[in-house]
Amino acid sequence: MGILTQPAGDVDYARFGKGYARQRRTDPSIAALIHAALGPAHTVLNVGAGAGSYEPTDRAVVAVEPSEAMLAQRGADRSPALRAVAGALPFTDDAVDAAMATVTIHQWPDPVAGIAEMRRVTTGPVVILTFEPGALDRLWLVDYAPDLIEIESRRYPTIATLVEALGGGTTVHPVAVPFDCPDGFTEAFYGRPEAFLDPEVRRSQSAWTLVDRAAERRAVESLAADLGSGRWDERHGHLRTQAFFDSAVRLIVSR
Ligand SMILES: C[S@@+](CC[C@H](N)C(=O)[O-])C[C@H]1O[C@@H](n2cnc3c(N)ncnc32)[C@H](O)[C@@H]1O
Question: Which has the closest alpha carbon to 130: 110, 109, 150, 158?
Fold first, then answer.
């Protein structure tokens, strides 16, 4: 494969990815679900691996990641990573026991082709953590940033598309997001609305990079105003003490 001179997905992590590893850390409860779904696999491929969140540490992992800026954020203790894309995995058929892809397939130019590649190189489970596009408007953020939710809903492949691509024996599991989720995707802050006022939090949520700057400013100003006036708390204050959020996050497991 030639050198990647353009972003492989719909986000330029060379511009926007610098603080990713700080803001987007493994959530232990989601990691436990992923690791259980990988079963007894000894060798695991992580596609669209980014800085390495959710990679198991008790098995041999090889990562695939196209962005240099993301590869640079992989800690020294992380597994080896290859600079490549999901649509052309540099492995022979049946090369690994299991494969995973977390919060990445929505950025691939052709998720179905990427999934076919994951299936080709894997003998056992293929495990995908993604979002149900039709459920993204459950988060109150839709009232402040409707453009962002709209863009996100169009970005994510439907769960039905993914299940069809993965074939028979595929199961879909809803994932409850915990209150203190350290993986800073938008729903992680369902009960901590002040987080959205922090530009570094927003920069590590790729959807904001696809939204008009004026729309982003409007969203932040109106959220700040509602937090100041108490209006947000009147409507959503119960979320500040709610342990889990019935989110759009889904774990898809093909065996
Ligand atoms: C939101 S990050 C998720 C990273 C990591 N999996 C995680 O859970 O933190 C999305 C990643 O997908 C990668 N990506 C984008 N397009 C890709 C493609 N065509 N093939 C493989 N990875 C891709 C990006 O470079 C980025 O690192």
Answer: 158
Spell out the domain ranges in the chain. 13-254
C-alpha 49/C-alpha 62 separation (Å) is 9
102 lines ligand 1 (CB under 6 A): yes
- CATH number at 13-254: 3.40.50.150
Output the CA 232–ligand 1 centroid distance in Å. 33
SS3 165: helix
Which residue out of 85, 107, 203, 210 has the highest number of ligand 1 atoms within 8 Å of its CB and is therefore the one to mutate? 107
Q: Return d(Cα 246, Cα 208) in angstroms, integer.
A: 22
Distance 160 CA to ligand 1 centre (A): 21
pLDDT in tens, 115-136: 999 999 999 999 999 999 999 9
Residue nearest to atom 26 of ligand 1 (CA): 50
Give the residues of the chain that fall short of pLDDT 70: 1-5, 11-17
